[in-house]
């Protein structure tokens, strides 16, 4: 945005907000595929190479299809076109950078920082980890109880006619 001379107005912030989901999505797809290979027993570097090779075309096609969605907005004419031009350029650039990072940086970082499951917990979990696990388990349990209560006390007016 800086190189295009754009400011942080509402439309640019909207574009950045929307692109956060796209950025995270590409990285998660790549990361999950690499972790799947690591959990299958492959060495970390080999898993990063194989996982990125398998999913690379998918991420490339996702990135290009998302960019294609915003091309008409980029070339829109009139007052509305001038208003949305900054939005389209910002979100298109963010999506392209996200695809590039997911195809290059994410596999490299996975090969350097992921730890195989065998060596993950060599020492006892720390107190913060245990505390957060207890908190998550309490939330899950409360959600399960509330869901069971709601399912057992349904309003008959909302039942389907079948």
Structural description of this entry:
The chain is mostly helical. It has a domain at 10-118: Multidrug efflux transporter AcrB transmembrane fold. Helices cover 76% and strands 0% of the residues. It is built from 4 helices and no strands. The chain has helices spanning 10-39, 44-74, 78-113, 127-152. Helix 1 packs antiparallel against helix 2 (44-74), helix 1 (10-39) runs parallel beside helix 3 (78-113) and helix 2 packs antiparallel against helix 3 (78-113). The radius of gyration is 23 Å and the shape is extended. The protein starts with 9 loop residues before the first helix and ends in a 10-residue tail after the last helix. The mean pLDDT is 85.
CATH fold-level topology of the domain at 10-118 = Multidrug efflux transporter AcrB transmembrane fold
Give the termini distance in whole angstroms: 55 Å
What level of helicity do the residues show? Answer: over 70%
Beta strand count: 0
Shape: extended
Q: Poorly predicted ranges (pLDDT <50, ≥5 residues)?
A: none
Output the number of helix runs. 4
Q: Structural class, judged by helices and strands? A: mainly alpha
CATH superfamily of the domain at 10-118: Multidrug efflux transporter AcrB transmembrane domain
- One letter per element, helices H and strands E, the order comes to HHHH
């Amino acid at each position: 945005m800086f190189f295009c001379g754009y400011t942080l107005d509402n439309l640019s912030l909207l574009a950045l907000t929307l692109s956060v989901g796209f950025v995270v999505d590409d990285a998660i797809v790549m990361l999950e595929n690499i972790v799947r290979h690591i959990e299958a027993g492959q060495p970390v570097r080999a898993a990063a190479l194989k996982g990125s090779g398998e999913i690379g075309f998918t991420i490339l096609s996702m990135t290009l299809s998302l960019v294609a969605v915003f091309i008409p907005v980029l070339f829109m004419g009139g007052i509305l076109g001038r208003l949305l031009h900054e939005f389209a350029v910002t979100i298109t650039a963010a999506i392209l950078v996200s695809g590039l990072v997911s195809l290059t940086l994410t596999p490299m970082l996975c090969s350097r920082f992921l730890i195989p499951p065998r060596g993950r917990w060599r020492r006892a979990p720390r107190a913060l980890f245990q505390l957060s696990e207890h908190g998550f388990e309490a939330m899950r349990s409360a959600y399960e109880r509330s869901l069971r209560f709601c399912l057992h006390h349904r309003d008959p007016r909302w039942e389907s006619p079948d």
